[in-house]
Specification:
The protein is α/β, with parallel strands linked by helices. Helix content is 27%, strand content 17%. The longest helix is centred in the first third of the chain and has 59 residues. It starts with 23 loop residues before the first helix and ends in a 31-residue tail after the last strand.
Length: 463
């Protein structure tokens, strides 16, 4: 049998010959090729197993690669939903990725990343957990919103001045101090009596002939209060009205120069911020609501000299005041009330009986009657009513600051006041005040500017 040792193919199964008939020596010689063939067969089977193992490994590796490609494709599809969409274009035979992104205004724009890597680290879109010490924008010097205003209402009040040249000189300086006091006052009230009420020939109370009240008296007072920094309202007192030689003429001067003084537009005053209503027949009666406080102006002067004139029907006039009071309560919404008048004396008792009725009907509304007197007076429960209060200012040249907090709870007295270091007062003659210590020290140094002015009462019309 011929040997195929050089053949790489797998040999066929061996064919075993019948028992030899030849001598033993010949049998040994013939057995060598048979062993070689068996060895070759074993080697071929081993080679077959190696080839089969390698092919199995190749198939396993290829499957693993296909699995990874499949998983990668799924991840890529998912990311394609979340990441910006891309489209490929060719520019100068170079394929660039153009990304569509949103700008700051929500518009879609094309964005082409640079092919040159940045030399500095890129900024992450994930916010840092630690704050930066560097502001992202420049600070602004303009406040983003206006400061919150206080709920309370403040205003200045003064009365019974000027009686003398000295007081006429001092008042503008005191008005200037009020303007620079830092108080958030919205208006000023003059409570009446703009001159001395006793300019009679014989100086007997209610005797003799009264002096005239010339127009320049009212012009002078208007000029003095042009120094006010806020709208100023005047109430009529008896001194420059019912005590004048010609009462009706004096009333006309009031109408012309003082009763609508708050409406002046030439003084640079800030807007009051509300609408002022006036009685059609008596413009000295007014009302307005500011910061939930109802302010009512009344014509309540002290008792006049009692001679015949157009105002002798005094009860009719007082009834009209009461009607204006009730009308103002009925037509407005408010939480507290300031009633402004010159006098709360018995001369006006008919009116105050009506005021009592109104106060009882509005027992939960704090009400203050603000008037004028020669001495400072305060009455917490005026006429025995818990919600009715009274303050009478004295005859000083320094305005008093009054504040109303309509939202104060647990107390019907929502009114506070600040006398603000009065610098002069009293009459016949005017007395200058001076403070050498405490919070008022130096406040009245402005008195020196008027030291040479006459402190005696001015008798207008006697020149």
């Amino acid at each position: 049998m011929t040997s195929n040792a050089d053949d790489d193919s797998i040999p066929p199964p061996p064919s075993y010959p019948p028992p030899p008939s030849t001598p033993v020596d010949d049998l040994e010689i013939q057995s060598t090729p048979v062993l070689e063939r068996l060895n070759m067969q074993a080697a071929a089977e081993s080679n077959l197993n190696d080839n089969t193992s390698k092919k199995g490994k190749k198939k396993y590796t290829l499957g693993l690669i296909l699995l990874l490609l499949f998983v990668g494709a799924g991840i890529g599809a998912a990311l394609g939903i979340l990441l910006p969409q891309t489209s490929n274009v060719k520019t100068n035979d170079v394929e660039l990725g153009i990304y569509q992104v949103l700008d700051g205004e929500g518009n879609i724009i094309d964005f082409t990343p640079s092919s040159v890597p940045s030399q500095s680290p890129s900024v992450t879109t994930i916010p840092s957990l630690s704050p930066s010490h560097i502001p992202t924008i420049e600070p602004t010097t303009t406040p983003s919103s206006s400061p919150t205003e206080t709920r309370s209402l403040s205003f200045f009040a003064i009365g019974d001045v000027p009686y003398s040249d000295l007081e006429a000189c001092l008042i503008p300086h005191e008005l200037n101090k009020a303007a620079n006091s830092g108080a958030d006052a919205k208006f000023m009230l003059h409570l009446g009596d703009i001159r001395d009420g006793k300019p009679y020939e014989d100086w007997e109370w209610r005797g003799g002939q009264p002096r005239p009240c010339p127009e320049y008296l009212f012009e002078d007072v208007a000029t003095i209060f042009e120094m006010s920094h806020v709208p100023t309202f005047f109430s009529m007192g008896d001194n420059a009205w019912l005590d004048c030689e010609d009462v009706d003429e004096a009333y006309k001067f009031w109408e012309k120069h003082l009763l609508t003084f708050d409406e002046r537009k030439d003084l640079g005053w800030p807007e009051l911020g509300t609408t002022v209503s006036r009685n059609e027949d008596h413009i000295e009666m007014y009302s307005f609501v500011l910061k939930d406080v109802l302010v009512i102006g009344q014509g309540l002067p002290g008792e006049g000299r009692g001679v015949d004139h157009a105002w002798t029907l005094w009860n009719v006039y007082l009834d009209e005041n009461a009607r204006w009071l009730e009308k103002s309560f009925a037509e407005n919404e408010f939480k507290s009330v300031i009633i402004v008048g010159n006098s709360s004396a018995g001369w006006n008792e008919r009116y105050f009986l009506r005021l009592e009725e109104v106060a009882r009907q509005h027992k939960d509304i704090p009400i203050m009657f603000l008037g004028d007197g020669h001495d400072f007076e305060e009455e917490a429960q005026f006429r025995g009513l818990p919600n009715l209060h009274r303050i009478a200012l004295d005859d000083v040249v320094t305005p008093t600051l009054i504040t109303v907090d309509p939202y104060a709870t647990g107390n019907l007295n929502v009114f506070t006041y600040d006398r603000r270091c009065p610098c002069a007062g009293n009459h016949r003659p005017t007395e200058l005040f001076n403070y050498t210590s405490g919070v008022c020290a130096g406040v009245c140094d402005s008195n020196d500017l008027c030291i040479n002015e006459d402190a005696e009462s001015v008798l207008w019309g006697e020149e």
